[in-house]
Specification:
The structure is a single chain. 80% of the residues lie in helices and 0% in strands. Helix 3 packs antiparallel against helix 7. The protein starts with a helix and ends with a helix.
């Protein structure tokens, strides 16, 4: 879904097209409208996530995506393309909901690389999209995309419900069965289960004291919760880092950026395929790296390298455009862009997504997902909408400079407020966000 504009937009803008055509403004709106409709989607999906469980919301996500791809494949005009992308946008909330779901279903030591494997699947989707574009029309690609969505719906039917969700609802017997099914019956698993049930038992006791409060007062009390606000702020910053470091604008517009720099459509198309292969390789490397190193070490270490490369690309493009410097070395700037994409995909992208699935308090997880999701969709839509306009008015050089400054700003704040989360249970992380500590948490960490 994210990479699809790189296939759809050139077809819409082509003067030789025998299918639907659009101008540049319409094409940029078609690319970005799913981010805008994603805001609406979060207000629908978050209550399902919190009230009906993780299975129900994940099935809903995939059914909506199924309808979106069918609408896209059968679209007869620009309006239908807008509608199809808007329907797909309702599922943008899946970025957070699927991540939080995965974090609840996996053990602390495996959570990091499971999240990275999830990112690899997105890279495979992008690679498939760009590769199929060499032999298929955008309609055929949309039809092919229905297949994995159908399989996902089938697989979800066989899931157990999330132990965290069951504990939050006070269904402790079911929670224990689901937890043992997922994590086994080791001493460490039993301690983690005990910690989860004890925390939620305590939370249920606290809820009894506020039973007489109206729903509006409960809602505003949630909004004033310090841990929830801190978690949302952290996730908003790491999300902005993901957008600004090139995660989405390179997937959608790398072909356009490379064509702007090299002047060759062929180089741009094959460059996008190489980028996808590097993305998958980077995420595969990050599976190992995220297991070996702390989250903060990776985020700030490789984040600094990413910022440096973005400034180097900006300077190189500026000097080539204005002074003809490096104009004979046509491969250098594309290689720098691909290297930047690789480093960002090893460091910032997987770590930021992992952190965004770890820091939400359980009792506020639905509302946190909604608030952070709205921020995500605004950043995502703004990135997809503004990137082609920034390239047009400030050039590739100016675009990279602006995004590099944004990443620098976010990492500077995160350096001060971000806790370390590696190999900690979700309950331990929640306790740390609240300023608590206990013996079980220390034992589990050791």
């Amino acid at each position: 879904m994210v990479a699809f504009p790189s296939v759809l937009n050139p077809a819409l803008l082509s003067p030789n097209s025998t299918d639907i055509t659009a101008d540049r403004n319409q094409a940029s709106w078609i690319a970005s409208i799913n981010g805008i409709s994603g805001i609406v989607g979060f207000f629908i999906l978050s209550p399902i996530f919190q009230s009906f469980g993780r299975k129900a919301v994940n099935i809903t996500l995939n059914v909506v995506m199924f309808v979106g791809w069918i609408t896209l494949a059968t679209a007869s005009n620009v309006t239908m393309l807008f509608i199809a992308r808007a329907i797909q946008g309702l599922t943008v909330g899946g970025v957070f909901i699927a991540a939080v779901t995965l974090s609840e279903y996996s053990t602390p030591r495996r959570r990091g690389y499971f999240m990275t494997l999830k990112k690899i699947s997105i890279g495979l989707g992008s690679l498939t999209c760009h590769t199929l574009a060499l032999i298929c029309t955008w309609r055929q690609i949309a039809g092919i995309c229905i297949i994995p969505i159908s399989l996902a719906i089938l697989f979800i039917l066989f899931w157990p419900e999330s132990p965290s969700y069951l504990a939050m609802k006070g269904r402790f017997d079911e929670c224990e069965k689901a937890f043992i099914w997922l994590n086994g019956n080791s001493l460490e698993s039993k301690m983690e289960l005990k910690e989860l049930i004890n925390a939620q038992t305590e939370q249920h006791e606290l809820k009894k004291k506020t039973e007489n409060l109206s729903q509006i007062k409960k809602f505003f009390r949630q909004l004033n919760n310090r841990e929830m606000l801190k978690a949302c702020f952290i996730v908003a910053l790491v999300t902005l880092c993901i957008d600004a470091c090139g995660r989405y604008f390179l997937l959608a517009y790398l072909t356009q950026i490379l064509e702007e720099i090299t002047g060759s459509n062929t180089v741009a198309m094959y460059g996008s395929i190489v980028s996808d292969l590097l993305l998958i390789s980077a995420l595969a490397v990050s599976c190992l790296v995220i297991r070996l190193f702390d989250r903060r070490t990776l985020l700030f270490g490789l984040g600094s390298v990413t910022i440096m490369l973005m400034f180097i690309i900006s300077i190189a493009v500026f000097t080539k455009s204005n002074y003809g410097f490096l104009s004979t070395v046509t491969w250098l700037i594309p290689c720098l862009i691909l290297l930047h994409s690789f480093i960002a995909s090893v460091g910032i992208v997987p770590v930021a997504f992992t952190i965004s699935s770890e820091v939400f308090p359980l009792e506020h997880r639905g509302l946190c997902s909604c608030i952070s999701g709205v921020a995500f969709t605004i950043f995502y839509a703004a990135t997809l909408k503004l990137t082609p306009l920034m390239i047009e008015h400030t050039g590739v050089s100016g675009t990279y400079t602006i995004y590099a400054l944004i990443v620098t700003f976010c990492l500077a704040i995160l350096f001060v407020i971000l806790p370390e989360t590696k190999d900690k249970t979700l309950q331990q992380i929640e306790n740390e966000m609240k300023g608590k500590s206990d013996t079980n948490s220390r034992l589990l960490t050791n």
